Amino acid sequence: MRKRTKSREYALQILYQVDIRRIDPRKVLEDFWEENTAQDEVRRFAQQLVLGTYAVQAELDPTITKYADNWQLKRMAIVDRNILRLGVFELLHMDEIPPSVCINEAIELAKRFGDADSAKFINGILDAIHKAQSTQKTKNGLPTP
C-alpha cells in the first residue's frame, strides 16, 4: 500500500474517533500512535490531514451539506461523513494534490470502510464540489487544474 494511501486510512480512523469521542484530535493522535506504528512520512501526512481537517471543519461541513442533496450531515454514516471531510479538505486546501487523486482516494476509502453505497455517495458529492470549485476558478480568471 502506498504511503499516502496508508496515511489517509489512518487519518480516517483518527477522525472517526474524534467524531465519536468528541475530544481534541491531538489526544486521539497521541493515543493512536501509542497503539499503531507507522513510518515518519506516513505519520506526518496523517497528522497533517487530521489537524487540517479538524481546523477547518466549520468550513467543510456547510460545503458538504450544500452538495449533499437531501442529506443532513448528522444523518450521514460517521464513516462517510469523515471521508467527505477528509476529501473536501484535500480538494480545497491541499493544492499540491490533484483533485482526481483526492476523489479517487476518498472513493477507495469508502469502498474499504463504508457500506455498499458509500463509494457512489462520496463520489457524487466530491465531484460536485470539484466541478463547482473549477467553475469558480474559471470565473475568477484562474486556470483550472
Concise description?
The protein is mainly alpha-helical and 145 residues long.
3D structure, described in words:
With 145 residues, the protein is an all-alpha fold. The chain has a single domain, classed as NusB-like (N-utilizing Substance Protein B Homolog, Chain A), CATH 1.10.940.10. The chain has seven helices and no strands. Helix 5 runs parallel beside helix 7 and helix 6 (99-113) runs antiparallel to helix 7 (118-139). The chain is globular. The model has no long low-confidence stretch (mean pLDDT 94).
List the helices and strands and how they pair.
Elements lengths: L2 H19 L3 H11 L4 H16 L1 H11 L10 H16 L5 H15 L4 H22 L6
Helix pairs in contact: 1-2, 1-3, 1-5, 2-3, 3-5, 4-5, 5-6, 5-7, 6-7
The level 1 CATH classification is Mainly Alpha
CA-atom Rg in angstroms: 15 Å
Counting structural domains, the number is 1
Counting helices, strands and paired strands, the structural category is mainly alpha
Strand content: under 5%
- Determine the CATH topology: N-utilizing Substance Protein B Homolog, Chain A
Q: Say what oligomer this is.
A: single chain
Record field, number of beta strands: 0
Which characteristics define this entry?
7 helices; globular; 145 residues; N-utilizing Substance Protein B Homolog, Chain A; 76% helix; mainly alpha
